[in-house]
Design brief:
112 residues; alpha+beta; three-stranded antiparallel sheet; 2 helices
Length: 112
C-alpha cells in the first residue's frame, strides 16, 4: 500500500481549512489592533479639542488620513466618533462581518 498518496490526499483535504483559519486569525488580529489604535487616538482627540483645535487640525496633527472624525455638539454633551474601514481578506468571513468592516469608536463627555 502506498502511504505517500494517502498523506497527499489528507494534506489536500486539510490545507483549505487550515488556510481559512490562519486568514481568519489575521483578520481578527487586524480588527483588534485597529480598534485599540482608535481607542488610543480618541484620548488624544478629546484633549486636542479641549485645547481649542478644530476637526481638520486634529486629523492633521494625529495623522488620521484614513479615519473619519466626527464631533457632535448638543446642548449638554459632546460626542466624539472615529470610524475606519477595514478590508476583510478571509473568504466567507464577510458573511459574519460586512466587507469593508466599519470599525467605530465613540465617546461622550458632558459640557461644563
Amino acid at each position: 500500500m502506498n502511504k505517500k498518496g494517502q498523506a497527499l490526499v489528507e494534506f489536500i483535504i486539510i490545507l483549505p481549512i487550515f488556510l481559512l483559519l490562519v486568514l481568519g486569525v489575521i483578520d481578527m488580529g487586524q480588527i483588534l489592533y485597529n480598534r485599540t489604535m482608535l481607542e488610543g487616538s480618541m484620548t488624544d482627540v478629546i484633549s486636542m479639542y479641549e485645547r481649542g483645535l478644530n476637526e481638520a487640525e486634529i486629523k492633521e496633527d494625529l495623522d488620521l488620513e484614513d479615519v473619519d472624525l466626527e464631533i457632535l455638539d448638543s446642548s449638554d454633551t459632546l460626542q466624539f466618533q472615529l470610524t475606519k474601514e477595514i478590508d476583510i481578506v478571509t473568504p466567507g468571513l464577510n458573511l459574519i462581518f460586512d466587507n469593508p468592516y466599519q470599525l467605530q469608536v465613540s465617546r461622550s463627555i458632558s459640557h461644563e
